[in-house]
Amino acid sequence: MMSGQEAVLSANAARVVYNEDSDAPVEAVRSITLDLRRGEILALVGPSGCGKTTLFNAIAGLIPLQGGTVEVGGTQVEKANGHVGYMLQKDLLLPWRTVIENVTLGLEIRGRHKAEARRIALDLIRRYGLAGFENSKPSGLSGGMRQRVALMRTLAFEPEVILLDEPFSALDFQTRILLQADVKRIIREQEKSVILITHDIGEAISMANRIVVLTNRPATVKTIHEVPWGGEETDPLTIRDLPDYQHMFSAIWQELELAPH
Amino acid sequence: MGAEADPSSPDALRTGVENRKPAGRRRRFRTGRLHILACQIALLLGILALWQLGLTLGWLKPYVYGTPLGVIKSFAEHIADGTLLRHFWVTGQEVVMGFVIGCGFGSFAGLLLWLSPLWAKILHPYMIALNGVPKIALAPLIIVWFGLGMESKVAIAAIITFIVAFLQAYKGTQQVDPDLIRLMKSLGATPWQTFRKIVVPGSVPWIVSALRLNVGFALIGAVVGEYISAEEGLGYMVYYAGQLYDLNTVWVGILSLMIMALILEAVVARIEQFLDMEV
């Protein structure tokens, strides 16, 4: 459960500009340099619209960089090829597929054998509290369970890095807290390296090993906070009661360049 | 009427399954259905009675409106000499063949267009034009191209249903959540994989709603084709009887078309159920 110092992903002066060749180019990400260490959860917080999702798209290889590099597992990202797993606010489950068929989606695309894919999926489903729902359609599940299925789908094809783009923000408060704890535990058990986008500072502090604060658009790295209890404490609710929690919360709050309302 | 006639229908189709009544209420539901059936029959009898009353009191002229008894008589005659069945069979074939060809190729082409955004862009204004034009206006052209036989009626039904199925299927592909396509890309999926696993199944509700619309369009296509030029078929029967002011026979033809529509609707409902289960 130790976070090694070895970087599984590193961005080096990554820059994204939309419509670069037009008269009105939009600089979404100015320069991002950061490392994701193996086995850690790295939270990205920043004002809304600051280019977090753009950065994710670039890391996943969905959009090209206009400068700098992103390396995953030592290889430079040039196009999307399943090196990262993606999980969004929307669960994006396919309504016509059962839970198990949704979980096997990524494995199918990678050309794994059907029986093998089902075995992997079934194992995850049973281990993480969805036993009995293997053959249900997503429409019969609660929001929290649906997000859990989405996480299983992401874990199933074993990407090197998992990107979580505000995965809890559509859930009600209680479900969110419970799912945060679950996801944190599952990620640690599976020894995954994760980047978590969130606008919820509390979520960042209670889930992450380190927190990266981004500036307003065009995004750059403002500060990086090491969370003192790091990987040891796993329960987000317990963390919220720690004395350091409040300090860290207000420190990050002040760093965020929130637009005046 | 165009392909856009009922944009909400796919959702309506989807939720249909979940709205099933719990078992305990089944009995009351049954009685309710019987009541409704009784009212439906009463409505029909009421219309017939009013019709007859109007004729008896001299408000309606029999040679303009026909008579209920005359319709029954004409129906019996046309059954007895086999002409009604023959006309029904001819029109039925035209409608079904046109429907199958049009829906099949139309849905297929509409789906495939997703694979080429360039072609979709090129075809865009044509699609809008086709969507807006009253498709039946093409009928005289098609008769010129395909001749006076059954082929031309099949062709009219097929071309009209093709357009509707094509537009609906393409529209279905455009409703697929872009985030879902982004997810597939991030998984390293090829466009063909995304097409097969996401776009096609995601478009099924739209294709099914096109089937619904196309029952009507296939009937219109075949019947109008027969109006223009034919020697058999229910459209021919109605048109010919109308020319002779034999309105009882016109009614027989119209009622036969209604029966055909009901049969086709029932078949499409079955297909719909099947696809809903599969997808």
Domain unit count of chain B = 2
Give the class of chain A from helix and strand content and strand pairing: alpha/beta
Task: Encode the helix/strand succession of chain B as letters.
Answer: HHHHHHHHHHHH
* Beta-strand fraction estimate of chain A: 15-25%
**Quaternary structure of the protein:** heterodimer
CA distance, first residue to last residue of chain B: 28 Å
Provide the CATH top-level class of the largest domain in chain A. Answer: Alpha Beta
**Would you tell me the structural class of the helices and strands of chain B?**
mainly alpha
Shape of chain A: globular
List low-pLDDT spans of chain B: 1-25
The name CATH uses for the topology of the largest domain in chain B is MetI-like fold
Largest interface: A-B, 22 and 20 residues
Q: Judging by the overall fold, what is the CATH architecture of the largest domain in chain A?
A: 3-Layer(aba) Sandwich
Name the average pLDDT of chain A.
83
CATH architecture designation of the largest domain in chain B: Orthogonal Bundle
CATH topology of the largest domain in chain A: Rossmann fold
Q: Which CATH first-tier class of the largest domain in chain B would you pick? A: Mainly Alpha
Strand content of chain B: under 5%
Q: In words, what does this structure look like?
A:
The complex is a heterodimer of chains A (261) and B (279). Chain A has 261 residues and is an alpha/beta fold. Chain A has nine helices and ten strands. In chain A, strands 5-4-1-2-10-9-3-8-7-6 form a ten-stranded mixed sheet, with helices on both faces. In chain A, β7, α6 and β8 form a beta-alpha-beta unit. In chain A, α4 packs across α5. Chain A is globular, with a radius of gyration of 18 Å. The termini of chain A are far apart. The mean pLDDT of chain A is 83. Chain B is an all-alpha fold and 279 residues long. Chain B folds into two domains: 43 residues; 210 residues, MetI-like fold. The interface between A and B is medium-sized, with 22 and 20 residues.
